[in-house]
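[recover] target loaded
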């Protein structure tokens, strides 16, 4: 208490000066319209900018949660579209309603949500790392999709993380078809731009046009039929001239890929297991036939 009193005694002139300054400023802005309007406008601008900056920071910090929620809602909405299309087809028997909705075929599947933690675009063999692993139910050779279409295939699985081979990898080989045309081929990426891949082995008698949708064919144990891949951008002749090579404008923006879903379905796994068993049986049968008999 003695120190406080001593401080006030030594600085009483400065304290009186600051007090009178504050009183003068209050009187100036309160009883003069022009100065009052200037103060009010400046204070509002400062407060507005402060609130705007705070809002932007808050939005940025919650962006990951919002994107995850949007991905989940997109999948739910696509499932609802599938159910409505199915009911409408049962009533009208019009097959066009069955093609509505990008994820109509994913309704019965279990989708594991994941976030991309690492991604590359400028290599011949690009890889994507996601933050889900074996503890989350991820297994090798599961298909990976996003809200816009196909992403790739699970290649390596750890406990908490997994590596995905995307379409933008020279080793990627996905069976795709031109929707509504019943022609299929295999999608490959030849490097270069990240939004174009090529569908090979399309028959010469195939009839389709630019802008037709390219989807997964369903002839594999990884993706069900109908997952969007992209649209026909250009058509070339194959090197041997026996088929078409179709340039596909990819629907997935790999440069802005954040949230994905991994398709976990027992039917697809069972189909793959049966295919592997059948291939092994055929191989063993071939080896037995090729062996000389005594």
């Amino acid at each position: 208490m003695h120190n406080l009193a001593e401080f006030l005694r030594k600085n009483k002139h400065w304290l009186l000066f600051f007090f009178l300054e504050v009183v003068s400023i209050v009187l100036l802005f309160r009883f003069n319209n022009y100065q009052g309007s200037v103060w009010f406008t400046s204070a509002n601008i400062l407060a507005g900018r402060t609130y705007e900056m705070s809002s932007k920071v808050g939005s940025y910090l919650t962006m990951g949660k919002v994107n995850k929620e949007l991905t989940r809602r997109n999948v739910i909405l696509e499932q609802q579209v599938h159910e409505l299309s199915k009911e409408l087809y049962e009533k009208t028997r019009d097959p066009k309603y069955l093609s509505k909705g990008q994820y109509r075929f994913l309704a019965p599947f279990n989708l594991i949500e994941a976030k991309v933690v690492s991604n590359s675009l400028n290599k011949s063999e690009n890889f994507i790392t996601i933050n889900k692993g074996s503890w989350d139910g991820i297994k090798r050779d599961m298909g990976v999709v996003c809200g816009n279409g196909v992403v790739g295939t699970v290649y390596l699985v750890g406990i908490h993380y997994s590596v995905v081979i995307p379409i933008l990898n020279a080793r990627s080989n996905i069976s795709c078809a031109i929707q509504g045309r019943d022609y299929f081929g295999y999608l490959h990426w030849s490097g270069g731009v990240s939004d174009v891949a090529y569908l090979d082995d399309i028959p010469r008698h195939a009839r389709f046009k630019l802008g037709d949708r390219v989807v997964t064919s369903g002839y594999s144990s990884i993706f069900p039929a109908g997952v969007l891949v992209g649209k026909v951008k250009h058509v070339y002749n194959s090197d041997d001239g026996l088929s078409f090579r179709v340039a596909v404008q990819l629907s997935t923006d790999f440069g802005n890929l954040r949230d994905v879903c991994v398709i976990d379905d027992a039917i697809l796994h069972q189909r793959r297991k049966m295919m592997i068993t059948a291939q092994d049986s055929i191989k063993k049968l071939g080896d037995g036939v090729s062996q000389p008999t005594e």
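[recover] notes: The radius of gyration is 32 Å.
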